[in-house]
Design goal:
There is one protein chain. By secondary structure, the chain is an all-beta fold. The protein has no helices and eleven strands. Strand 9 and strand 10 (about 105-110) form a beta hairpin. It is globular and about 40 Å long.
Length: about 120
């Protein structure tokens, strides 16, 4: 099992910045990819960004150039720096840790609210 604890989030005006962090504990050696998803009211959960072992990153088109994902393997943490936030970024953001080969290995954090006002 892997436990994920998120921090950060909150409320900010459009154009502002927020940073989300997620710390993993437990069977972290089973994980090769960490990332962030979000779910807005009435919408499906969607990938925001993820980062694999060795560093390859993947971003949703809607956040490219504004969000940056980073990972500290020594501390088993993943962070999401969100700049130039827009009202449409408002959602609950979930930390995810998974193994892209063994797909049953897939864990979620409890979620953290990000609200961007215009």
């Amino acid at each position: 099992q892997v436990q994920l604890v998120e921090s950060g989030g909150g409320s900010v005006q459009a154009g502002g910045s927020l940073r989300l962090s997620c710390a993993a504990s437990g069977s972290v050696l089973s994980i090769n990819t960490m990332g962030w998803y979000r779910q807005a009211p009435g919408k499906q959960r969607e990938l925001v960004a993820d980062i694999r072992d060795g560093g390859p990153t993947n971003y949703a088109d809607s956040v490219k150039g504004r969000f940056t994902i980073s990972r500290d393997n020594a501390k088993n943490t993943v962070s999401l720096q969100m700049n130039s936030l827009k009202p449409e970024d408002t959602a609950v953001y979930y930390c995810n840790a998974r193994n892209v080969v063994f797909r049953t290995i897939n864990y979620w954090g409890q979620g953290t609210q990000v609200t961007v006002s215009s």
